[in-house]
Amino acid sequence: MVSYKFSCVALATALLASPVFGFPSPEGDFATDSYGGGGHVNGNIVKKDLFVTYEKGAPDGQERQVIYVNGQFPAPPLIFDEDDNVEITVYNKMEVNTTVHWHGLEMIGTPWSDGVPGLTQKPIDPGEKFVYRFKASPPGTYWYHSHTRTTLLDGLYGPLFIKRKQGAKKPWDQISKDKNEQQNIDKAGDNPTFMTVSDWSKVDSETYIKAEAESNFDIFCRDSVLINGKGSVYCPGKEFLYKFVPQGLLDTLDGQNVNDKGCLPFVPSTEGPWFDKGNVSAIPAGMQEGCVASKGQKEIIEVNAHKNGGWLSLNFVMAATFMAATVSIDEHDMWLFEVDGHYVTPQKYQGVTMNPGERYSVMIKLDKEPKDYNIRVASFLSQTTSAFGVLRYKGGKKSIVTPGVIPNTTGFTDYGGFPTKKEYKILDGSYTALAPFPPNAPPKPKEGDEMHVFHMGRWGSPWKWTMSGNAIMPPDANAYDPLLYNPTSPLGVDQNLTIHTKNGSWVDLVLCVGCLPGEPQEINHAIHKHASKVWLIGSGQGIWNYSSVPEAIAKEPHSFNLETPNYRDTIMTTFEGSAWFVLRYQVTNPGAWLLHCHVEIHLAGGMGIVIMDGADKWPTIPPEYGSNKSGY
Q1: Which of 82, 286, 299, 509 could pair with 389 as two cysteines, CB 3.0-4.6 Å apart?
Q2: What superfamily does domain 450-625 belong to in CATH?
Q3: Is this structure's pTM higher than 0.90?
Q4: What would the pLDDT profile of 390-407 be if each residue is shown by its tens digit?
């Protein structure tokens, strides 16, 4: 593994232009009354140590270097009570830099703990440590992961769960009207089982991003899908894979089809006017095609049908760096009740489609014959592939758990993630039935105080991406001079890569995909905002041609939902042509926050922008973090 001294694209903020607001000094007038900020401390103090190492491993049967945390891959679950005061010391025992981001947590009053090098901290150098302090909020299912270069591809990720306070309003009466059942469901919800889904390659992150740069292509091709860090490489053959490629996708491939790994070919319709700049021969053998089967372990999730009245809370974390995938469990319906850590009105599904960075929590009734059942994880959008695990009833009949051998149970979905019967209901990621519970629509009905429009897409190359439509976020820029500590430097005033908002204002972010000149067939982007959730109040097909959100609402009222909008920290854009999305949030947490695509190679290609929320009320840096200190 090649050592490197700088950090991830996320730290990228080589930003120059004219400031929008004057900033108070970091020793200025914005008092931080929270843990790690010099104020009083309420609640328990919970301390944990995380030791990060590079070691040999073979998650899918193919040996390579893997990042372990406390000797585990994936990293161990972190579980807290709501409003715990958390202190986590990360020890970097690798030969490369790292940071840790706490995906979905608000970091209210503690922006120095968000884990983005170049924005909120300097990188944790080899042999060094960093102390992250933050309030455990909001409650729900989250995850933590590397935010340095593309090392997320190497395995630094794990689930994080915050248990809700007593008395919190919960949606269990939407699942059952029986009071005893509601109590059992509540117990299950407080004691979830985690299932982390990730994609995996036989090459490390440095090799991957080098291949992209040298080939000038986005290499959307992995070797396997892992369930809780376990899996195998399946090579069923092209003829088998062809059966699961939808016609709509085939129509974009210029008469070609997927290869033996189920990966899409490079064609002008998807690569755009830069297709001829690509060099497929520069891609190392086996990365884009040339499937080599291997056998790793299969994940077994053992459940007790006599516990919690037979209810299981299975909380999914989508740690994939590239692909979307559909999860189903043979013969078991799922009550979806939480998305991105926030309750939604429960809906029953037979499968759930997840995108990079998202979390979905489902309640499952364990009332079937006690034996083994298949867990299926299938993808078709960027790559046609599958993974399999086992849901095992404790004390039931066991099947032969061997890679390539699956229990004889009836599946709701096939190898491509499509329903095996028309009546089976699969959540497809369209956001149509995920109303927050209880309803929490933003009070601003038609127009925010500020509007910012981003034209997202490729930037002069098939593997370079822009978030703003005006520039790309360069990697490794000013890694050791974070924007949080130096907001008035040139880093914070490039209007092509940074926006500034006023504290207390309501902000509308308009994302337009497929809107740039020469843009080819657009692909999905998983857009994640650090530090606060957003309401998805509108979306539509075509190019955004409106001067304001009220104008768009007047012209396309059917494209907006101001009553029960989705409330998320990660939003997936659509796959079909030009489209726009309107996100709304209120600025209540000043700091330097990243807005970016969570498809890892898109971020590596420049798809990020800085939002300096509350630029007029910049936070005071506590002494233990001042002058780029590391929390101690």
Answers
A1: 299
A2: Cupredoxins -  blue copper proteins (2.60.40.420)
A3: yes
A4: 999 999 988 876 666 778
